[in-house]
TrEMBL record:
It comes from Podospora didyma. This is Mitochondrial import inner membrane translocase subunit. Belongs to the small Tim family. InterPro entries: Tim10-like, Tim10-like_dom_sf. It is a peripheral membrane protein. The twin CX3C motif contains 4 conserved Cys residues that form 2 disulfide bonds in the mitochondrial intermembrane space.
């Protein structure tokens, strides 16, 4: 019986590596979706200037912050539901 696992078997090294790889894949996918959504919402399609306009930069900052906040809340809810069902921590 493991003290930290509360009686559950500890994941093997291969399982830990797979969990980290899945998490990295999830973060990369989230980043790609955020770039696509926020760019289409905030950046002028005519590309009149080489640099972002102040309004575009502010829009991108806010869009990214809201995107991460929403994903954090979803992740926390999934973790809570997984733990309530008796599963281990969600990766």
């Amino acid at each position: 019986m493991s003290f930290l696992g509360f009686g559950r078997p500890q994941p093997s090294s291969a399982e830990k590596i797979a969990a980290v790889e899945n998490e990295l894949k999830m973060v990369a996918e989230m980043h790609s979706r955020m770039i696509k959504v926020c760019t289409s919402k905030c950046v002028d399609k005519t590309y009149r200037e080489g640099e972002l306009a102040k309004g575009e930069a502010v829009c991108l900052d806010r869009c990214a912050a809201k995107f991460f906040e929403a994903h954090q809340k979803i992740f926390e809810q999934i973790q809570t539901e997984t733990q309530n069902r008796g599963g281990g921590p969600a990766f």
